[in-house]
Structures are given as C-alpha cells and as structure tokens.
Amino acid sequence: MHKPIGAARRPEDAWRMEVVREPPRPAPFRFALFDFDGTVSLIREGWQEIMIPYFIEVLAAMPRAESEAEIAEAVTGFVDRLTGKQTIFQCIRLDEEAQKRGGAPSAPGAYKAEYLRRLEAHIQGRVSALRMGADPEEYLVPGSRELFALLRERGYRLHLASGTDEADVLREASLLGIEGWFDGRIHGARDDLTDCSKELVIRDIIRENHLTGRELLSFGDGFVEIELVAGIGGYTVGVATDERRREGVNQRKRARLLEAGADMIIPDFAQARSLMDYLESGE
C-alpha cells in the first residue's frame, strides 16, 4: 500500500508511506526507539563509501583473493547485513573473510581504527562547520526535530541507540542540538561491550518499563534494529532517506529494510504529523 502525501519537485520524490503491514489498532505505542546515523543524523553520510572500498582493499591483498567484483559483492553484502550493529562487528567479519582467503588472523580493532581514521577525514569538514555555527538542520534527516516534538507532545518516551562509538554519538548529538529530546541515556557502542548494544537497550526498555513488545515503535535505517524490534512484536518504520540529496528514497536502503522485515518505509520525517496520525489512528 502506498499513501502519497504532499508534493515534491520531482514525482519520484513525493513524500509517501509504503505500508507493508498495517499498524495495530488501537495503537498501543508508548515508547519510540531511534537509530542515529542515517535515521536522524547525516553527519556521517557516505560512511559506506569509506568502509566498503577499505574492506575491498584489505581482502584484495589476501593470497587467495577472488576478482575485485566478487570481493565487492561479498563485502557489500555483509556490511549491509551488519548495518546497525557496532562497527567492531563489521571488522570482526572482515578478519574472518581475510582468513578465508589465506590471510593471517588480525586484530579487528586495528581494522576499526583505520576505518575510523578514514571516516573522520571524510566528515571533519561537517564537524568543523557545525562547531563554527552552521545550521544543524542541514545535517539532520528532514523533519527529525518536528517528529521528536510531536512524540513528546503525545506522551511518548524517546530512546536512541547507535552502533557508532558512544563518545562520537554524544559529540554529534550535541552538535546537532538534539541530545535533550531523549529520556534515557543516549546509547552507543562501547569497547567493553561484545553483545549487540541495541539488543541490550531494547531488553532494558522492555524490562524497566514493564512493556510488551507491541508498545515499542522503532525508526531506523539498518538491518539490525528492524530485525530486533520486529522479533519482539514492535512496529518498525524503515527510514530509507537518500542522504546525499536529503530528499526521496534510497532504493538500496529500501531493499535492505524490506528484507529485514520493516513494516513501513518512509523517505524522512518531513510529514511528521501525517505519519503519526496514520500510525496512531489510520487517518
């Protein structure tokens, strides 16, 4: 089902909800869980264009490396599948793939450090611009702030969980001026955490607030958070933002989110009130 709302400069960019499964009626939602990068923040836009070529470079140097096209297909597949988990998990998988191709075991932390070095160079101009007073709206998924305000107005409690290192999430949430919207601590990856941080956050939210899974509404652009929330009976909104243009749907993201089991696909939060009205009452 497609529910077009509003107008856009190009027909393919019309804001619409792609509904795979209808929300439960009456709506039971009390808590909203957000991913960070790509769902709310655009500071790290292009991170896959840093990670995937780096990982291909590593695997292409292995003794039993296939063609670059075959390596690229394998890397893209596991990076997509692990999007939403802490970065270290993608680096652990890289080490496993290197060993399959005849490489010696390496420290996944070393791969992570090199990836983060390259990523930091990629985003440094954006971070510097924000520190110098650039408009944070340019680095937010459209409508994010409006959706936070609307959710709080309607009595929701908001949580944020990211696979990015916690110190970086806190830094970037502060630069964007959104840290105050979240009731609980903003959760990111920590070096001492080997389980999936999002799974732990969801488990804690459910336990501490005596929730059923149906009371949790999730917004994310990664495979992991969609699978996790769907697995406990929550409702999952896949945010398939074209991060580079800040408009329309990224078809690769959409395919990934549908594969993960998203209940709904949206391009962004630009029609926050229409989105929430539909989720809560079907209007």
**Estimated structural class:** alpha/beta
Q: Could you name the CATH class of the largest domain?
A: Alpha Beta
CA(first)-CA(last) distance: 14 Å
Largest sheet: 8 strands, mixed
CATH superfamily of the largest domain: HAD superfamily/HAD-like
* Individual helix count: 10
Helix and strand arrangement:
Blueprint: E1 2-4, E2 16-19, E3 31-34, H1 47-60, H2 68-82, H3 87-100, H4 108-131, H5 144-153, E4 157-165, H6 166-176, E5 187-189, H7 197-209, E6 216-220, H8 223-231, E7 235-239, H9 251-260, E8 264-266, H10 272-281
Parallel strand pairs: 3-4, 3-6, 4-5, 6-7, 7-8
Antiparallel strand pairs: 1-2, 2-8
Helix pairs in contact: 1-2, 1-4, 2-3, 3-4, 8-9
Structural summary, described in words:
The structure is a single chain. This protein is of the alpha/beta class and 283 residues long. The protein has two domains: 2-42 and 140-281, Rossmann fold, CATH 3.40.50.1000; 47-131, no CATH class. Helices cover 46% and strands 13% of the residues. The chain has helices at residues 47-60, 68-82, 87-100, 108-131, 144-153, 166-176, 197-209, 223-231, 251-260, 272-281; strands spanning 2-4, 16-19, 31-34, 157-165, 187-189, 216-220, 235-239, 264-266. It has an eight-stranded mixed beta sheet. α9 (251-260) links the parallel β7 (235-239) and β8 (264-266). α1 runs antiparallel to α4, α2 runs antiparallel to α3 (87-100) and α3 packs antiparallel against α4 (108-131). The chain is globular. Mean pLDDT is 91; it is low at 1-8.
